Amino acid sequence: MDGASFITALKAVGAGLAMVGALGAGVGIGSVVNGALQAMGRNPDAAGLIQTNMILGIVFAETIAIYCLVVALIVLFVL
Fold it and tell me: Which residues contact 11 (CB under 8 A, 6 or more apart)?
């Protein structure tokens, strides 16, 4: 195995490890939606306010996944 292919393999492993952080975002989004749906079921009159806060929570959790994707792409194509 030459050095160039070894570096390419390490880049692929690094990018894969960077994307592991997206698991946390998926779990976070599921938790936010679960809590919001339970709250809406208990108090349907507050569904509009709960839905707004749910969307904000999803956006903040999704930001982590986007950061993981950016780091993985930097590892693959820049380093």
Answer: 75, 76, 79
User: How far apart are the C-alpha atoms of 18 and 74, rounded to whole Å?
Assistant: 10
Task: Quickly name the fold that domain 3-77 has.
Answer: F1FO ATP Synthase (1.20.20)
Domain spans in the chain, listed from the N-terminal domain onward: 3-77
* pLDDT tens sequence across 1-53: 688 888 889 999 999 998 888 888 889 899 999 999 999 999 999 999 999 99
Residue 79 DSSP one-character state: -
State residue 51's pLDDT score. 92
